[in-house]
């Protein structure tokens, strides 16, 4: 039977914890990592009522988007809803796992699901992250006898399997340069090529690949395991390049331009919202930027991307002025912009595990905001 730890590994392969924001607290919130899963209940927020529903429906794991433990807890006395939730989970052996801004910042996550609901095409990351990539350079023998066994191919295959060589939607990416490597094996060495204390010059290939920094340890292990040399020469260089597939928000295109009123009607229908708070805007809406949750910090990025509309939640009064008449800023609500995140979790879990346990969407409402229309 899969364990809670297996579930964490699966979700973190899709949304690595390295991509969460510094203020966040994604990951396993409470529970035994070695516990076998009897069922998973998916929710946007975890509350005492959600834990009770999990117990009632035979689920010993709750997967939530928002972490229930967001700030450090100094005590567990049941004085507030957070403490009550954790106490209920511990009493009933229910593990709680949260994937928050790490799921916001990856393709296939929260924003891709929102884009899908709005029918956006040709989507790209609105605010790509920088400082998440590195370049690995290494050198392998390139003599005729080595070419017959394809040493370079063997090393590269190991690096690809460990997570290197991905550029956007292209995999198995590398660069090769021919050259000559020189070395003198010291006393006590067991060189794959050459003799102790004798200078050696070997035809070599210089191999270069990109890798995400959070895969560094795994990629270096793979390099050492696959490389023919006793001592593996390599360079690892952190890059400032933006990661095209990692970052906040998305921007895409509607299939056809809509009048502002028609676009707001689309938001109401597709996001099941009775009210859209928005700025005045009279031009047709074609290019749309989105960010699930509290996305006011990306208003400037949406303007810079040439968006006609920016859809997000939790926009404050003064932040609406940030539209500067250049786009229609639409606040559909925090919950409303993220309410379909459960479908992301469900799809990941059902595809990643055999049907040995139920994966259920919570029925208990958790949106604290109500509307009178």
From TrEMBL:
Stored InterPro entries: DUF34/NIF3, DUF34/NIF3_bac, DUF34/NIF3_sf, N-reg_PII/ATP_PRibTrfase_C
Keywords (A to Z) from UniProt: Metal-binding
Pfam families assigned: DUF34_NIF3
Superkingdom per UniProt: Bacteria
Family to which this protein belongs: Belongs to the GTP cyclohydrolase I type 2/NIF3 family.
Annotated NCBIfam families: YbgI_SA1388
PANTHER family to which the protein is assigned, alphabetical: GTP CYCLOHYDROLASE 1 TYPE 2 HOMOLOG, NGG1 INTERACTING FACTOR 3
Name the UniProt record assigns to this protein: GTP cyclohydrolase 1 type 2 homolog
Native organism taxonomy: Bacteria, Pseudomonadati, Bacteroidota, Cytophagia, Cytophagales
